[in-house]
Amino acid sequence: MIKIIKYILLDILRNKMVLGYAVFLFAITFTVFSLEDSTLKGLLSMLNLVLFIVPLVSVIFSTIYVYNSSEFIELLVSQPLKRSRIWLSIFVGLAGALSLAFFAGAGLPMLFYEPSPTGLMLLLMGFLISVIFVAIAMLAAVHTRDKAKGIGFAILLWIYFSLLFDGLVLFLLFQFADYPLEKAMIGISALNPIDLGRILVLLKMDVSALMGYTGAVFKEFYGTDKGLIVSLSVMVLWIALPLLYSLKKFNRKDL
Amino acid sequence: MKTIAILLLCIASISNIAISRTVMVGASHIDKTIRSGIINANTHDTLLVETGIYHEHNLVIDKPIVIIGIDHPIIEGEHKYENVSIKADSVTFSGFSIRNSGISSIVDYAGIKIHNRHHVTIVNNILEDCFFGIYSQYSVNCIIKNNKLTAHQELEQQSGNGIHCWKSDSLQIIGNTITGHRDGIYFEFVTNSIIWRNISFGNIRYGLHFMFSNSDTYAANVFEKNGAGVAVMFSKKVKMYHNYFIENWGDASYGILLKEISDSYIDGNYFVRNTSGIFLEGVSRVEMYNNDFTENGWGLKIQASCMEIVLKYNNFRGNTFDVGTNGSLVLNTFENNYWDKYEGYDLNKDKIGDIPYRPVSMFSMVVEKNPPAMMLFRSLITTLMDRSEKVIPSLTPEQLKDNHPLMKPLRL
Q: What ipTM did this prediction achieve?
């Protein structure tokens, strides 16, 4: 298994796209922090980067990679190897390569410019979101044989998580404005890893604004150690559930 | 020669009257208690009280004398009595440690209370665990200076105000430190007074509670981490200069809550990390110059019931929302402020932006209507909504804008 991971990792790292992704992240992070006069604005731009660009690249790259290596996967399957090992190796290789690229590109300049709790939380969220969207991409890829359909499905998932979901929440909020939704919002936020990541970062960044009533409910839950553990476990669930589901599908898939 | 001698005698006798005596109080003196010292003292005498613990029950000062404590002698209230009641004019009371006054929901027990007097001076005292700290009622021309007040109650009902002033005039409240009381400084029906260089932090309710008090000034005070910030209500001609309002956190907590204030000035204050820097309701004719709003949740919450407020030369930096409002009517002026979120340009290089800045974002209006929407803060959809709102304002008040925003922050 380690051999396969090593092979996949090296294969991806040699890929120009991941290198380009790392360089792109590095350039953006560097410019953002050296151009903005306040670190808060820098962190804000970084937050947008982590919440939109990172999942997008993660999900598209992983889907394409899985489709492109379908022949390689077929070759591996013909060897005396367990299917689940092959699939997990691909996941570890992809997740490792993309999070490595994220750390090298965004992590290093951020540790240099902003080694604050907010910065560190942002890094952790970037890492988790990278891995989560690799898992989601693999789910999309295993779902259909058609490459174009698979990539379309992956992009649709990205749009859902970063835009449509929040739109739905806003719609629900105004439909049920007469009800106390503060506590329900905590549960709803767990349904979207991007929202969860955003709230965890905001609790460090916009403390003053979040000390209002609703924010205080969030703060009470997420701000404590227990809440942090719960929300991080939810993020881990967001990695595990799509991955296990895709694994189940892959094990039975007629290649 | 003889006349000179008589003259000298006369001067000597006059000065003998003029020079007051000094009465010592302490364990090693004739006057063992302050009470007997006061009985033995004449008008304008000085009482020097040596260090020790004095159980005086309720010490009443009924002569215009100077009482000075050496090394902060303790006047113990045993949780039953009002420690010191000043019932004479021109009393100076200084250098004592006042502890454990009575607590009651019927009587306003205080560490030191001024009863309807003038020219009383209270300086350098340490008050610990008093119900009310220093209480001034119907007094005029009094000085309360450099006192340190600490209380440890948790509930509002069991705690009185630190410096409580009621129906007084021409007071000087200077350099006091107040913590743990209900309200740090409480002003009701107090006029022509100054509150200067006090530090009020960690009080249960307000750092400064200010009502029906006209023509007062408070300057260079620090109000930090009070339960509900500072409230200034129902007053006219109030001047607020160079105060610090720091970390007043909570939904109903404000750097300053201004309610029904008119003809006032708010200049050179610092608002740092409050949930709301200033909350204005029913405020009219107020000028706000040279204030600094940094890292607040809302820099300013200005209700539509306010009019003729002028905001000029203020810095808004790192606030989550610069300005929040609840309606579309705008009768106030925003001019020449620095906004760090301003994205305009300055073609003619006069350091003033060429396009107006709208400090109210659409999302702040959404949150005002529907607070749980705060969950979506800084998400892609709200960013998109804010952008489109900037192009075509629909929800945000059209007139609330700074036509001449500054390009560089002011040095304050």
A: 0.80
